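hey team, just a heads up i'm posting the complex here instead of the shared drive bc the drive is being weird again. everything in one block, sequence lines first with there labels, then the predicted structure for the whole assembly after. its two chains so it's a bit long, scroll down
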Amino acid sequence: MSYILIIGAKSDIAKATAKEYAKHGYDLYLAARNSSELEEFATDVQLRSGVDAKLKEFDIAKFETHQVFYESLEPKPLGVIVVAGYMAEQKECQEDFTKTLNTINVNYTGAVSILNIVSNDMEKNKDGFIVGVSSVAGDRGRKANYIYGSSKAAFSSYLSGLRNRLYESGVKVLTVKPGFVATKMTEGLDLPEKLIASPDEVASDIYKAQQKGKDILYTKWIWRWVMLVIKMIPEWRFKGMSL
Amino acid sequence: MSLMSWGVYPKIKNTVFKFNEQKTLRKIINEHDKLIPYGNGRSYGDSALSSKIIHARPKDYFIDFNEETGLLHVQTGVLLSEILESFVPRGWFLKVTPGTKLITVGGAIASDIHGKNHHVEGCFSECIKEFNIMLADGEVATCSKEATPELFKATCGGQGLTGIILDAKIYLKKINSQYIDQTTIKTKNLKETFEAFEEYQDKPYSVAWIDCLAKGNKIGKCLLMIGDFRDDGKLDYKVKKQKSILFTFPSFVLNNWSVRVFNWLYYGKFKQRISKQVVDIDTFFYPLDAIGRWNRIYGKSGFTQYQFILPKESSYKGLEEILTAISKSGKGSFLAVLKLYGKANDNYLSFPMEGYSLALDFKIEKGLFDLLDKLDEIVVKYKGRIYLAKDVCVSKEIFEKGYPQIETFRRYRKENKMDSKFQSLQSKRVGI
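-- predicted structure starts here --
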C-alpha cells in the first residue's frame, strides 16, 4: 500500500494522525529528530494495524539535508503531512532572538524547504497530497503569541499559494488550523473545555478532510466561527484588547 | 480535574499523576502514600478512587504479538476494545472478557474480571502468562503464577492494592467468525431459570437477564442467552458508530414504572420459549457499550451496581429471598444479570465461586443503602460474597465473611509495605 510521510512525528497530533492513517491501511514514514525514540510507537502502530512503519531521521531546521532526505525515500510517499511545530513562550521570543528564529525556522522556513521539494515531485507526477498543520493563531496576530502566530500565518499563506499552483496538476493541499488541542504543548494551561479537541479528534478530522479533498480545516469546527469573529474586530478596537 | 468512577458516586477531589517513564513513576511512588491506580474508570464504586490517583490509561502501546501461540504483550492502559479492533479481523478474541470492552488490561487483572464463559474458562488471570508490576519500594517485579505465586494471587483481583501494573502478556484465542449463534430461552420463574442454566451448562457462553420487579410466582423469570462462535470465516469486524447519552437525565426518569414498562417490552420481544438468533460480537458481549455514557440515565446523584454471588447449594433459597426483598422495595432496574459460575480460583480476592451471581443497578436515592444493608445480611446468611469492582458501600464485617483468604491478603500487603503505599476509599472502608 502507499506510504504517508509524517514530518515531526513525535508530537501528540502527529502520533494520532499516524495511527489514523495506519488504521485505514496506509504504510508510514515517521520522520523526526532522534527518531529512535519512536521505536515503541512504531511497533505499536504495526501491531495494531498490520501496516509498515519506518522511522526516518529528519531535522526540519537543517534545510540543507532535505533534498537528500527526500531522495532517500523509496517508494516515494503518496501523501506528506507536516505536523512539525515549535511554540516557545512569547516573552522568551521577545527577549531571545534565537528562540524567535527557531520558531520561524521550524514553523515556516523548514516546512517550506521540504514542501518545495515534495511539491515539485508531486506536480511532475500529477499525483499525491499535502497536508500542512498550521494554527488558528495564524489568523490574527495577538500580543500573547504573535511570534508563533506570524510564523503560522506565513505557513498558511504558503499553503494557500501552493494549493493554487498545484490545482492544475490535481495534487491536493489541505491547510489544517487546530484551535486548542489537549497535548503536551497545552498541558497545565487553563482552557475552556468546549473549545479543546483531543489529538484523536484532530487526527480523525484531518483524515476525513484530506480524503474528501477539502482546502481548509478548522478543528474543532467551532474555531472557524470563533476566528471569523476575531478577524472581524476592527484594528482600532483590537489593538487595545487582551484576547 | 478530578477523576470519577462509572457510578459517578462518590465524588471526591483527587490529584492525578501521569507517568511516561518508569523513573517518573518510581519517583511518584517514593514520594507519596495512599496511591491507587486508575485505568479507564469503569469500575462502578470506589475501588479506584483515592485522593491521589495514578492514571494508567495513557500507557497504551502494543509491544509484541506471537501469531503461533496467540500471546499478546501490551502496556497496562490498552483497552480490551483496542485489542478487539486489531485482532478480531485476524481471527483472535479475548479468552475472557467482561460485559464491557471499555476497560484496560491493567484493570482486568486488578479485578480478575470474568465473563459469560466463566463456567468454562475461569477468570482473566487464567489467560495471563506474566506481567510487570512496580511495587511499593519502586522496584519492578515480573510476576507469574509459577514464579511469584503470592504476588500473583494478591494482584489478580487485588484491586490495584499491590502496585502499579506496567504491562502484561496475555493469551488470545482463535476464532473463525465474528458472529455468534445465540439461543434465547424464556423462563417463567426461578425454578425454570435454574433448570435452564443446568441444562445448557456445557455451552461456552451463557447469561440471563432477569426481571427484578416480577412478583409472586413469577419471581426469577428471565431470558437466558446461550452462545457459541460460528465457524463461517466472517471476520469483518468494524467498530460501530456509538450513540451517546448527551446529558445527565433528571433522576425521576428512571422509576418503578418506567423500568416495569421496559422489562415488559424487552421480555415480550421474545415470543417463543426457545428462539435462535445470529448476533455479532458487540451485540452479544457488549450490548451496553453501544450507548456512550449510559451512566447518565441515572441522574446526577449517580448509581451503584450491586453484585453478589451465592454458593450453588444455597443459591435457590438465597436468590428467592433476595429477589422478594428487591421486588417489595420497588427499587431495582432493568439491568439485572444472573449467571451460573464455575469453580473458584485460589487468588486471594477473586470474586467468582461455584454458584449463582446476580448483578443489578440501583440509582443512588433515599432508602437505597438501607435496602443494600438488608441484602448484605441475606448474602452473608447464605455464605455469599460481594464483588469489589462494583461495590461502593459494603461494610468491613460483611465483606470479611465472604472472603476466607482475607487475612492472607492483609498480611501479604503489610509484609511488603503495600498497605500504606496503596489505598483506595474502598480498601480503607473494608480494611484491606
